[in-house]
């Protein structure tokens, strides 16, 4: 509808001239009618007739002229009637156009009204309305309207009622705090529900800011937990590069929010809003405004100072608001310092029931610093610079921030879909083996997941025809669409291979050349496409494009989201760096009925992995039993010569649930339950 409106034709304004006005114009300038001559069929004209009757009497002549004049006026009147008829038709057409324009304007006004209602809060789901209430409660306690204790009780009340809150509270933005507070106090309590209140203190979140895998993880697991009845909120730094257009109802909390840093209190500006139904708080330092107003998120010499400030400010904000979450969920080294801060300085400020969970995406990123820097956020360096606390295991003169997070957390989740706890402890600990060994009972391994709402071939709006495991006809349609869009031969017998890389993986160009040249002898079409707007693979792909010239090779060097979805749906095979789902490429491929095949395939290594790592998840077990031992040429051979066997593989893959809502969410809930019961 928008396109039709946007392409509407501008019709010039036309006016009907009133009759009185037409009379005036006629009186000013009369039309002179030239003498008419009627040619007869033989070519004679009226003057010849006049010559023939020249000898008759004047009476006959006058009668003849009168009859001729009558005929002329008759023709003139008929012409006038035709003109009037045409004018009526023209006016009717103008009327119809005006009516259409009126309807168009009415529709535009309606769209503007809906947009206004959207921004004002109309039509929001229950979860978004619940978060509006919770964030208003934060504002009330920050302005000393209610006590932290009452704020905590009101939050619990909203959490219990979040499924029916839209029926109770209306027009939240239009009401004063006092009015909302009265309604909250009148709301009767109902039966308790065993649900957790989780606060993420982190540095990334999709779609606001995304640099690594943590961004999709925070959003994915938060949405999954909320779909299962838990309440989740996220605290982030207010970076200059934040995509604030994605925040619903963003507003500044007009209240003092101080945090301790470098020996004194410093003010912060706090912003709140909702993203994907998740309450989001953004903390913006006032005195240290340069900490997060930079081009990059990470990579500065003062990163520890930046993120330790943010971690302390987040804890101070939680205390000031009177929040009493069940779990503070922190991530990687950047917010691992929350553990020591919480247990040494914060816990006795009303958070005795709160527990700390640390997630590690990459154990190799640890952050080593001089011990005296711990004093910046209020910690005691002498107390913490010990071997059983923050002292680094190798560089003993330094403190290890990630190690401190492991020591001071109640639970640690290591994100790895393809490695067991045993393998991580003994092969992938990056110098933390002794620390992880001591705290082994805290460790939980969890698989990565996929956003099944955004990536679902049965509902994907980017596809020309949707499909699922029970009806695969739409996949063939998607294949033809990819071929047509990229100028490839539209032949169903061609095997379509998508080659998708992101900025976090290096392309082995020489290996890729060998794979491509080897398989171009077969009936194969290969599409190279970037997986991210920030892809750094383009340079390697450009080099590859210059060297490989073939009508069955296509390169898409600019990010195209629609084509990316279509490539996952239409391809038979997706080439990827590895089967590790941290990049989500293999997960998306399986979801869309496409085989994820590793470029640098090593069957011997895969067999070793299967035999030595039995404590793996459903994803690892499945990928190893289906595509783990298949190279590209073997996959092409099976598609060509054993299509029924290949179809069984693909349909089995599509029926698996590797989303955040599956095994990953269950493991997180179990971890929260375990540490809450400590």
From TrEMBL:
Pathway: Glycan biosynthesis; starch biosynthesis
Domain Starch synthase catalytic span(s) in chain numbering: 197-436
UniProt-listed GO biological process terms: starch biosynthetic process
One Gene Ontology term of the molecular function aspect: alpha-1,4-glucan glucosyltransferase (ADP-glucose donor) activity
Protein EC: 2.4.1.21
UniProt-recorded name of the protein: starch synthase
Catalysed conversion reaction: [(1->4)-alpha-D-glucosyl](n) + ADP-alpha-D-glucose = [(1->4)-alpha-D-glucosyl](n+1) + ADP + H(+)
Enzyme class: transferase
Keywords attached to this entry: Glycosyltransferase, Starch biosynthesis, Transferase
A Pfam family of this chain: Glyco_transf_5
PANTHER family found in the cross-reference section: PTHR46083, UDP-GLYCOSYLTRANSFERASE SUPERFAMILY PROTEIN
SUPFAM superfamilies linked: UDP-Glycosyltransferase/glycogen phosphorylase
């Amino acid at each position: 509808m928008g396109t039709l409106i946007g392409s509407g034709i501008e019709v010039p304004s036309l006016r009907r001239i009133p009759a009185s006005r037409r009379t005036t114009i006629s009186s000013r300038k009369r039309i002179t009618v030239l003498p008419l001559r009627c040619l007869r069929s033989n070519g004679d004209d009226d003057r010849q007739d006049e010559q023939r009757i020249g000898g008759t009497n004047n009476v006959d002549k006058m009668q003849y002229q009168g009859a001729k004049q009558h005929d002329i006026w008759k023709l003139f009147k008929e012409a006038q009637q035709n003109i009037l008829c045409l004018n009526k038709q023209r006016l009717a057409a103008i009327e119809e156009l005006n009516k259409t324009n009126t309807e168009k304007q009415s529709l535009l006004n309606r769209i503007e009204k809906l947009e206004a209602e959207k921004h004002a809060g109309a039509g929001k789901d229950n979860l978004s309305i619940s978060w509006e209430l919770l964030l208003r409660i934060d504002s009330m306690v920050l302005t000393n309207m209610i006590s932290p204790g009452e704020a905590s009780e009101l939050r619990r009340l909203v959490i219990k009622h979040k499924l029916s809150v839209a029926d109770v509270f209306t027009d939240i933005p239009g009401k004063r705090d006092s009015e909302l507070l009265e309604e909250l106090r009148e709301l009767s309590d109902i039966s308790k529900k065993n649900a957790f209140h989780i606060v993420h203190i982190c540095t990334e979140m999709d779609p606001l800011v995304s640099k690594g895998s943590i961004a999709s993880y925070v959003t994915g697991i938060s949405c999954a937990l909320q779909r299962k009845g838990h309440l989740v909120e996220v605290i982030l730094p207010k970076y200059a590069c934040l995509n604030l257009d994605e925040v619903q109802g963003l507003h500044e909390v007009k209240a003092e929010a101080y945090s301790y840093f470098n020996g004194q209190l410093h003010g912060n500006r706090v912003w709140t809003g909702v993203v994907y139904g998740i309450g989001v708080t953004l903390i913006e330092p006032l005195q240290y405004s340069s900490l997060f107003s930079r081009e990059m998120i990470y990579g500065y010499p003062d990163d520890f100072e930046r993120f330790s400030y943010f971690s302390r400010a987040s804890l101070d904000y939680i205390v000031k608001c009177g929040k009493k979450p069940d779990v503070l969920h922190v991530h990687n080294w950047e917010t691992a310092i929350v553990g020591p801060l919480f247990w040494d300085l914060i816990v006795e400020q009303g958070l005795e029931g709160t527990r700390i969970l640390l997630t590690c995406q990459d154990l190799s990123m640890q952050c080593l610093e001089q011990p005296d820097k711990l004093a910046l956020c209020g910690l005691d360096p002498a107390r913490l610079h010990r071997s059983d606390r923050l002292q680094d295991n190798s560089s003993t003169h330094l403190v290890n921030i990630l190690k401190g997070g492991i020591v001071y957390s109640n639970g640690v989740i290591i994100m790895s879909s393809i490695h067991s706890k045993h393998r991580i402890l003994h092969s992938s600990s990056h110098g933390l083996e002794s620390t992880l060994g001591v705290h082994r009972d805290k460790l939980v391994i969890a698989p990565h997941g996929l956003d099944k709402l955004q990536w679902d071939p049965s509902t994907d709006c980017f596809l020309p025809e949707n499909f699922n495991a029970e009806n695969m006809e739409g996949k063939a349609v998607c294949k033809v669409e990819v071929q047509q869009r990229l100028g490839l031969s539209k032949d169903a017998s061609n095997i379509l291979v998508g080659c998708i890389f992101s900025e976090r993986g290096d392309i082995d160009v020489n290996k890729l050349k060998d794979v491509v040249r080897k398989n171009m002898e077969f009936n194969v079409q290969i599409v190279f496409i970037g997986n991210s707007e920030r892809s750094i693979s383009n340079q390697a792909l450009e080099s590859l494009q210059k060297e490989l010239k073939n009508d069955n090779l296509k390169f898409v060097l600019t990010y195209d989201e629609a084509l990316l979805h279509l490539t996952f749906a239409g391809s038979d095979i997706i080439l990827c760096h590895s089967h590790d789902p941290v990049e989500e490429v293999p997960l998306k491929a399986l979801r869309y009925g496409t085989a994820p095949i590793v470029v640098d395939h090593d069957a011997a290594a895969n067999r070793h992995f299967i035999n030595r790592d039995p404590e793996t998840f459903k994803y690892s077990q499945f990928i190893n039993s289906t595509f783990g031992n298949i190279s590209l040429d073997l996959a092409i051979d099976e598609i060509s010569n054993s299509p029924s066997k290949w179809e069984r593989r693909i349909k089995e893959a599509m029926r698996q649930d590797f989303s955040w809502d599956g095994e990953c969410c269950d493991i997180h809930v179990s971890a929260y339950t375990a540490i809450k019961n400590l």
